[in-house]
Structure formats: C-alpha cells, structure tokens
Amino acid sequence: MSSSSSDKVRASHILIKHQGSRRKASWKDPEGRIINNTTRDDAVSQLKSLREDIVSGKSKFEDVASRYSDCSSAKRGGDLGSFGRNQMQKPFEEATYALKVGEISEIVDTDSGVHIILRTG
C-alpha cells in the first residue's frame, strides 16, 4: 500500500537521551558520559524547561534544537523532513499526527529518549 503525499507529515524535534535510551551516545556526547548520568526525570525536566522557553517566545525551536538535541537532526534545527505512517517509532508517529501544523507536543517517550515535536507540515 503506497501512501500518498497527503498522508505524510513534516516535523522537527528535540531529543534528550537518558540512561534508558537504546543508544547511549550522540553527536554532542559521543562517549555517552552525560547520557549515562542523565535520568529520565532529568531529561524530562530539561526538555520541559526548553519547551517553556520556546512557547513563551524566549527561544526559537530551531535554535534550541541545534544546541540541545541529541539527534543528528540538530544540525538542521531539528528538522526530520516528511514521513508517513510506520516510519517512526509508534509514540512519536502518533504524537506528530495528533498535532496541528505549528503546534508543539508535550513530552513524548520513545526508545530513543524523550522528545518534543513541532509539526511543520
């Protein structure tokens, strides 16, 4: 079954990895020293604080993603491009499809870590 372009969404995200993440390394922490010492609660607190800064207008999503996200998409301001169903981890996909364009999710948990998602298309 092919998905038409209308089935696709576009999103950016900020990922904070923690001790429970399936891959405990990232572009900004290649040895995983920080990630291995970050609890899920710490990651959630950091992400909530970053989300508040974005929602309040104090910071831009792209700038925060570039600086803080553990995903390699950080170099694109968190942009993941377009994707369809069954291309992302289920909780991430469901959260993205539930957002309206321009909305930012609450905290989303996946095997990769904790995310906030901005639906861009």
Task: Explain this structure.
Pfam families: Rotamase. With about 120 residues, the protein is α+β, with helices and mostly antiparallel strands. The protein has four helices and four strands. It has helices at about 35, 40-55, 60-70, 90-100; strands at about 10-15, 80-85, 110, 115-120. Strands 2-1-4-3 form a four-stranded antiparallel β-sheet, with helices on both faces. The longest helix is centred in the middle third of the chain and has 16 residues, at about 40-55. It is globular, with a radius of gyration of 14 Å. The chain starts with 8 loop residues before the first strand and ends with a strand. Residues about 1-5 have low confidence and may be disordered.
Radius of gyration: 14 Å
- Share of residues in helices: 25-40%
State the order of secondary-structure elements, H for helix, E for strand.
Answer: EHHHEHEE
What's the number of helices? 4
Taking strands numbered 1, 2, ... along the chain, how are they ordered across the largest sheet? 2-1-4-3
Number of strand segments: 4
User: In one word, what is the shape?
Assistant: globular
- Report the structural category: alpha+beta
Uncertain stretches = 1-5
Q: For the terminal residues, how far apart are their CA atoms?
A: 22 Å
Largest sheet: 4 strands, antiparallel
Q: Please state the oligomeric state of the protein chains shown.
A: single chain
Mean pLDDT, nearest integer?
A: 95
Biased composition (Basic residues): 15-25
Protein name: Peptidyl-prolyl cis-trans isomerase
Pfam family, one: Rotamase
Domain PpiC: 6-121
